[in-house]
Design brief:
single chain; Protein Transport Mog1p, Chain A; globular
């Protein structure tokens, strides 16, 4: 699957800056929702940041804008999403899709995992200025399962960004969680992100 890019430099910058500027800051105690949609993560359920609280935008129908790298092109118009950010460079995103039945949900989750597995190579093929690497961090035992991946990108102009992704499913509902900031694989809070992933999938029921 082709990853949509609006200029590779802008896409990779989104790893570090997220979509925080698109929303007015909502304190971590607030939890907006969309009627009938599965529950989303509360800001406090994201991996703790050492020097900032998490903030969140509203739960919003439709695809996130900008689309996240790796999984963005696969997200349908019926997606529902919520963006999160800190006062520094760390941001996160959750996108949930309710499919017509469990088989379609399983197929969609498999497609997202395939996109993540091949993302690093595709990013490199799109720009000679980018070096990308992927790690698979294994399965989280929750509902029908969730899988965690890491994507690191380094650019010739000096940018270095790390992102964690998870794809989880409960019945006919699939959720994707993304966490990202400037840094490398060593900066990725994998254990805490797996806890966040488990919570996100638990909330789908």
């Amino acid at each position: 699957m082709t990853i949509r890019t609006r200029g590779i430099r802008g896409t990779l910058t989104a790893l570090a800056t997220g979509t925080a500027l698109a929303f007015a800051a909502v304190p971590a105690t607030a939890a907006a929702g969309t009627a009938g949609a599965p529950a989303f993560l509360d800001p406090a359920e994201l991996p703790p940041h050492p020097s900032s609280p998490w903030y969140a935008g509203p739960v919003t129908a439709g695809q996130p804008d900008p689309l996240p790298i790796c999984v963005g092109e696969a997200l349908p118009s019926v997606s529902v999403h919520r963006s999160y950010w800190t006062e520094l460079d760390t941001n996160a995103l959750q996108v949930t899709v309710v499919e017509r039945d469990e088989q379609h949900a399983a197929d969609f989750a498999a497609l997202l995992r395939e996109d993540l597995a091949g993302c690093a190579k595709k990013l490199e093929s799109q720009s000679p200025d980018i070096t990308a690497a992927k790690k698979y961090y294994g399965k989280v035992k929750v509902a029908e399962g969730a899988h965690v991946y890491g994507i690191h990108t380094a650019a010739s102009w000096g940018a270095s960004d790390i992102a964690l992704f998870s794809v989880g499913r409960d019945g006919r509902t699939v959720t994707v969680v993304k966490w990202s900031q400037m840094g490398t694989f060593r900066d990725a809070p994998v254990k805490a992100f797996k806890t966040t992933t488990r919570t996100a999938v638990d909330k789908l029921s």
